[in-house]
């Protein structure tokens, strides 16, 4: 392994560089903006420069931090770390000019930084504009360093105090371009790393089993990066897999258990079992693969599906207008139909838990805790009539005990759990994630599918007598493994579970749950309002509006809220105004990108929803 190459920019008296030159395995390249003649006039500079040269470090003068590649040959451009302590345009330059300096610096650094390198920028207290600054300046009066860095593809991965007193021989200098010190009390060191590049996902097809044969279908664009991710595969180290395995292991100690995962079809058809038609993803199969439909010819079934289901998938208008198709296919919004199939097959011995798990899909509104896809764990078992309450209590207690242990292992603390009365079989609606998180201990892990935001339930399904017998009932519990993983590992945004950044999974050794440490701190957010006229006599389908936002903006919008609605006097035309908040949880998102996305979205709602942007 070679030497770690460290580049220091904007050195004043070179005292900081001199403190690093003795570090083992490090090659230091120290630079300053001034000429050598100007630099050596600073107090102590000549001594520090000589110390650097004696240690084998490079010292380079007259280096412009906005044009770094001009000073280094291509083979010497990959630095593992770049330090820029207390950058400033000089004299009385204001925040705007210093933001511009940082913007050009980050763009220049991207050309000479190693792929997994770091950029360290030290700023005086309040300059950065992040919550780490105490006190925190108003946003417009700060250097907005995280947003500025995002423009060059960098994210803030760490921030910590700049402790000048611990740096041997260090003395700050350069106050207003003079050989004078300045106050560094409360200063912060900001550590930036490269973001993953903007995602681009081509349209793709997916294969699944349907009625005993393999079929392929076009994946809805909003889900192309979430189909077949393999989170629950046997070789996975994803926290969702770990939660499922731990819960399954806990259940197997108290109940006979059968587990079913990979053989479950992604597609379903027929009745929606309570799911709202406008909240499912409708799917078109290629004509040669569409299974025959009872009561009509195979060719007619193909014709109907090809001509109508795709329209249904994009607009949902035929669902709202009562369009009837003999066999409609959709991505499964629940695993419950698979459980019902097991019951119908008769392979359902009393007392044995059947555990089904896999991803389920639904259209939903945009929020940090509304998940268009998540991994459901469905627990189903038959018990004697009259014993359902006690059996459900056993199930709840077992899940509670396992979650106790997992929470203690992940966080190192013992939660104070109180058991919600599970014998009432009531559904509790959760209005926000804060409420959900505050009741971590209760049986609000057991969620009821189809609610938005998720609710929770411990329910009893009484099956028709002929399916099992008049003496048996079926108890089921549905768990959202994604929300469980978020709560146990301290993950605040569901999108992080689906990140392509390898730094996420590196934090989770196989079979272990740990508190997640975000590698993208204080991501900037950008607010844009969109106003438009709704066609006369029509109502805007909000779920379709939010789903189109996911499709067009690629999960870069974290919140959509209706801000205003009014009807124009005289014409009766209705106008709506929505506020979109753009923010990424795992990659750099610049102000310019957000503005371009907003303009593209305006065009798409005009084309696809028939509204008229104002």
Written overview of the protein:
- The protein has 614 residues and is of the alpha+beta class.
- It folds into 3 domains: 191 residues, Vaccinia Virus protein VP39 (Rossmann fold, 3-Layer(aba) Sandwich), CATH 3.40.50; 196 residues, Bira Bifunctional Protein, Domain 2 (BirA Bifunctional Protein, domain 2, 2-Layer Sandwich); 88 residues, Ferrodoxin-fold anticodon-binding domain (Alpha-Beta Plaits), CATH 3.30.70.
- 26% of the residues lie in helices and 22% in strands.
- Strands 3-2-1-4-5-7-6 form a 7-stranded mixed beta sheet. It has a 5-stranded mixed beta sheet with strand order 10-14-15-17-16, sandwiched between helices. Strands 19-20-18-21 form a 4-stranded antiparallel beta sheet, covered by helices on one side.
- α4 links the parallel β4 and β5.
- α6 crosses α12 and α14 crosses α15.
- It is globular and about 95 Å long.
- The chain starts with a strand and ends with a strand.
- About 14% of the residues have low confidence.
- GO terms for molecular function: ATP binding; phenylalanine-tRNA ligase activity; rRNA (uridine-N3-)-methyltransferase activity.
- Belongs to the class-II aminoacyl-tRNA synthetase family.
- It is found in: Mitochondrion matrix.
């Amino acid at each position: 392994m070679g030497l770690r190459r460290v580049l220091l920019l904007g050195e004043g008296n070179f005292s900081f560089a001199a403190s690093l030159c003795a570090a083992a395995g490090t090659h230091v390249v120290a630079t300053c903006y001034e000429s050598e003649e100007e630099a050596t006039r600073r107090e102590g500079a000549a001594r520090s420069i000589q110390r650097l040269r004696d240690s084998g470090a490079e010292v380079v003068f007259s280096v412009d931090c906005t044009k770094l590649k001009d000073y280094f040959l291509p083979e010497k451009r990959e630095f593992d770390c770049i330090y820029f302590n207390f950058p400033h345009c000089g004299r009385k330059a204001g925040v705007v000019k210093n933001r511009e300096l940082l913007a050009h610096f980050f763009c220049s650094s991207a050309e000479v930084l190693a792929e997994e390198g770091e950029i360290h920028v030290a700023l005086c207290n309040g300059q950065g504009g992040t919550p780490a600054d105490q006190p925190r300046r108003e946003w417009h009066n700060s250097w907005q360093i995280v947003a500025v860095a995002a423009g060059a593809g960098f994210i803030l991965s760490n921030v910590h105090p700049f402790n000048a007193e611990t740096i041997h021989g260090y003395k700050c200098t350069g106050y207003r371009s003079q050989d004078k010190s300045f106050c560094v009390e409360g200063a912060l060191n900001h550590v930036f790393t490269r973001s993953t590049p903007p995602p681009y996902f081509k349209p793709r097809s997916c294969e699944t089993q349907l009625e005993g044969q393999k079929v392929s279908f076009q994946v809805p664009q909003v889900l192309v990066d979430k189909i077949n991710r393999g989170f629950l595969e046997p070789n996975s180290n994803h926290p969702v897999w770990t939660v499922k395995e731990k819960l399954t292991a806990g259940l197997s100690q108290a109940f006979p258990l059968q587990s079913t995962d990979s053989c479950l079809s992604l597609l379903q058809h027929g009745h929606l079992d309570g799911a709202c038609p406008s909240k499912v993803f409708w799917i078109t199969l290629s004509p040669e693969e569409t299974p025959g439909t009872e009561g009509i010819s195979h060719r007619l079934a193909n014709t109907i599906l090809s001509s109508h289901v795709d329209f249904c998938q994009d607009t949902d208008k035929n669902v709202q207008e009562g369009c009837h198709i003999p066999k409609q296919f959709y991505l499964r919004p629940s695993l419950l139909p698979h459980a019902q199939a097991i019951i119908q097959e008769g392979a359902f011995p009393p007392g044995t838990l059947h555990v089904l798990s896999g991803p389920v899909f639904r259209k939903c509104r945009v929020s940090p805790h509304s998940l268009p896809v998540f991994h459901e764990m469905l627990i189903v078992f038959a018990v004697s009539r009259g014993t359902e309450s006690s059996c459900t209590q056993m199930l709840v207690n077992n899940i509670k005990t396992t979650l106790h242990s997992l929470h203690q292992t992940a966080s190192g603390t013992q939660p104070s759990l109180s058991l919600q009365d599970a014998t009432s079989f009531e559904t509790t609606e959760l209005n926000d994630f804060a409420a959900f998180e505050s009741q971590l201990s209760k049986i609000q892990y057991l969620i009821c599918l189809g609610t938005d935001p998720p609710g929770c339930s411990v329910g009893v399904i009484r099956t028709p007598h002929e399916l099992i017998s008049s003496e048996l009932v079926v108890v089921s519990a549905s768990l959202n493994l994604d929300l469980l993983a978020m709560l146990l590992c301290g993950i605040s945004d569901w999108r992080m579970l689906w990140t392509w950044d390898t730094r996420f999974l590196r934090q989770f050794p196989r079979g272990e749950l740990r508190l997640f440490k975000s590698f993208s701190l204080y991501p900037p957010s950008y607010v844009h309002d969109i106003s438009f006229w709704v066609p006369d006599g029509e109502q805007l389908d909000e779920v379709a509006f939010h789903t189109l936002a996911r499709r067009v903006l690629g999960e870069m919008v974290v919140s959509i809220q209706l801000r205003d609605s009014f009807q124009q006097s005289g014409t009766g035309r209705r106008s709506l105004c929505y506020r979109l908040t753009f923010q990424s949880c795992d990659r750099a998102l610049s102000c310019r990108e957000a503005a371009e996305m907003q303009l593209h979205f305006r065009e798409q709602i005009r084309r696809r929803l028939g509204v008229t942007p104002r």
